[in-house]
Recover the amino acids of this structure.
């Protein structure tokens, strides 16, 4: 239905702009704070216009870190976060697409039970099973390692479920045609299901990368060595100083930098992401 | 190319559902056999058993002399054309055609040669680099055929390949499939529920009903001498008329044209005339409905509880609701006994 009601257009735009302001303003404030010197916040008033200390704040974070807060240079933290987020995102996709494939295409004993067991883990996020998970990781000697950071977060019922739903929509005849054409189970998976799941994988990757990047509690528990600190932990440590005023300019500079990789992932994969959510290519 | 033999083939699904029972059928090398029957008669199941997509619970299937019961579909060297085409959506037409050959480790030049040849035969060369999504229904159907042709298999299996096309295109593709099969001389098994398709394509027709074969024969055989009442009613359009023997007048009028023991008499609409042509059985009827269909008209006639359709040329000079006389050609009556088997 095409309507032309000017006041409705106006009203919609007001709401949209208000929404943008609400979302964007804190980001703007963070950016402004990152451009001021460390002493501009003593008054308790937040400046609203950019200052001239930008290069120093960012330079300090990227170069030397904040030794008083026990924060190593940002480059290391960013790398750690990136490695963890990638391992989690890729690991989750790999494991869940394989388990979904098994559940949908193979008839094995207790198949339904297996599916429901996976499904039930949805109700047990890391926070709920944190003690046993920590114990297992510690016993395996995985504390202070990338494996320890990522493996416990890799199992994913959501992604398995998503792939399962997608596989169920793939027509049986496609499998039969592939069988007649001489494709075995692995070949069918590799040549048919994987390419067909491309957009789903991209959509999941975006969500899971951000999920991994934002992890806070788990990295805090399993890392004691600053070589494995992630950026989200770093921000917290800097903001949380005892007997001193937090250096808001560097904290905010870190926040801005920490925001970049997820933003880049979203922007780069936006087209595939939207396609994966709305379109089923068959 | 190869002969296909089915002996005592059965399919029983878990829960004792018998989909196919004791099918014996020998399909000659290069023959075009059509399996036809109403939905649920087991024709698709039988085809899928030949293809290897359904397990065989009894009997033996051999293709080209070797028993294939335990072989994977790919090892049976057959190619199948599916109802919804089942093209690989993420591959171009060329990749679709190549896929089976690549899996067989066919050398590259040979693949290219066969794809080019199939594309030329089916006139799909201009679309080779498109995706299936960008093709029309008829073009997709051609690609599906192409995928079968390039393999140069022992047999083609068609599972209602034309039912997703509109009526006009269906007629056209039907002719093309027939030409193609004549040209390639590949043994073909074709499943359909459309008796026109079945009649026009088949060298031999296999009419199936509730998991069993009712009759096997050439289209003409089945049309002219249906062995069972089911076949008689299934083949032909409009369908054959059936009259209970008991509802008809005495022996004298029938003039000995049906044997003793006849329970039902069948007569095709084209053998029911409104004016007598040769020796015939006259029945007083009322015109219930006239359907003009171009060159002929279907006249629905009623007499007590009996209902007849007469196919007459042109437009008859009668009106709905008027009394008339139906003349059934005595030479063209099909007598069936109480069990539905043909007599004489």
């Amino acid at each position: 239905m095409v309507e032309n009601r000017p006041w409705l257009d106006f009203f919609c735009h007001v709401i949209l702009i208000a929404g943008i302001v609400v979302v964007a303003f804190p980001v703007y404030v963070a950016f402004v704070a990152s451009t001021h010197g460390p002493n501009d916040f003593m008054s308790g008033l937040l400046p609203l216009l950019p200052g001239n200390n930008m290069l120093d704040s960012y330079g300090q974070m990227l170069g030397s870190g904040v030794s008083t807060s026990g924060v190593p240079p940002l480059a290391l933290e960013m790398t750690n976060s990136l490695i963890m987020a990638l391992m989690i995102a890729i690991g989750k996709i790999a494991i869940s697409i394989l388990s979904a494939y098994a559940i949908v295409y193979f008839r094995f004993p207790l198949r339904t039970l297996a599916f429901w067991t996976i499904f039930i883990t949805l109700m047990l996020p890391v926070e709920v099973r944190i003690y046993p998970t920590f114990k297992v990781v510690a016993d395996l000697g995985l504390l202070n390692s990338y494996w320890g950071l990522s493996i416990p977060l890799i199992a994913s019922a959501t992604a398995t479920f998503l792939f399962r739903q997608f596989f169920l929509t793939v027509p049986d005849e496609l499998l039969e045609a592939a069988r007649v054409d001489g494709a075995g189970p692995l070949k069918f998976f590799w040549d048919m299901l994987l390419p067909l799941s491309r957009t789903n994988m991209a959509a999941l990757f975006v969500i899971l990368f951000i999920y991994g990047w934002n992890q806070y509690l788990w990295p805090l528990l399993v890392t004691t060595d600053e070589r494995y600190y992630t950026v989200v932990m770093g921000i917290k440590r800097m903001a949380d100083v005892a007997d001193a005023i937090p250096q808001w300019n560097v904290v905010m500079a870190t926040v801005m930098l920490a925001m970049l990789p997820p933003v880049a992932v979203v922007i780069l994969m936006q087209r595939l992401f939207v396609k994966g959510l709305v379109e089923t290519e068959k | 190319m190869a002969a296909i033999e089915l002996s005592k083939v059965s399919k029983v699904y878990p829960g004792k559902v018998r989909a196919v029972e004791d099918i014996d059928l020998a399909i000659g090398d290069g023959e075009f056999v059509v399996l036809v029957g109403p939905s649920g008669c087991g024709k698709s199941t039988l085809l899928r058993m030949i293809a290897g997509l359904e397990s065989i619970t009894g009997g033996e299937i051999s293709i080209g002399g070797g028993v294939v019961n335990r072989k994977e579909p790919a090892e049976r060297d057959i190619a199948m054309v599916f109802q919804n085409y089942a093209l690989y959506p993420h591959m171009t037409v060329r990749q679709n055609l190549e896929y089976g050959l690549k899996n067989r480790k066919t050398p590259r030049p040979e693949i290219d040669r066969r794809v080019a040849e199939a594309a030329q035969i089916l006139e799909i060369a201009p679309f080779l680099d498109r995706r299936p999504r960008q093709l029309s229904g008829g073009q997709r159907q051609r690609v599906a055929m192409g995928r079968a042709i390039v393999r140069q298999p022992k047999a083609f299996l068609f599972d209602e390949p034309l039912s997703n096309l509109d009526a006009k295109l269906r007629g056209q593709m039907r002719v093309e499939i027939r030409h193609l099969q004549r040209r390639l001389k590949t043994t073909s098994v074709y499943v359909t529920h459309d008796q026109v398709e079945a009649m026009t394509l088949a060298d031999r027709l296999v009419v199936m009903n509730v998991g069993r074969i009712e009759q096997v024969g050439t289209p003409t055989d089945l049309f002219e001498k249906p062995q069972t009442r089911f076949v008689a009613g299934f083949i032909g359009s409009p369908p054959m008329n059936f009259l209970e023997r008991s509802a008809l007048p005495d022996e004298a009028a029938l003039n000995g044209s049906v044997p003793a023991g006849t329970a039902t008499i069948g007569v095709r609409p084209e053998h029911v005339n409104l004016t007598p042509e040769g020796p015939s059985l006259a029945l007083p009827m009322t015109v219930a409905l006239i359907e003009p269909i171009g060159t002929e008209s279907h006249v629905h006639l009623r007499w007590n509880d009996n209902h007849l359709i007469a196919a007459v040329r042109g437009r008859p000079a009668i009106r709905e609701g008027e009394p008339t006389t139906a003349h059934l050609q005595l030479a063209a009556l099909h007598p069936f006994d109480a069990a539905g088997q043909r007599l004489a």
Q: What stands out?
A: Chain B touches chain A through 24 residues (CB under 8 Å). The longest strand of chain B covers residues 280-293. The radius of gyration of chain B is 24 Å. The CA atoms of residues 274 and 326 of chain B lie 5 Å apart.
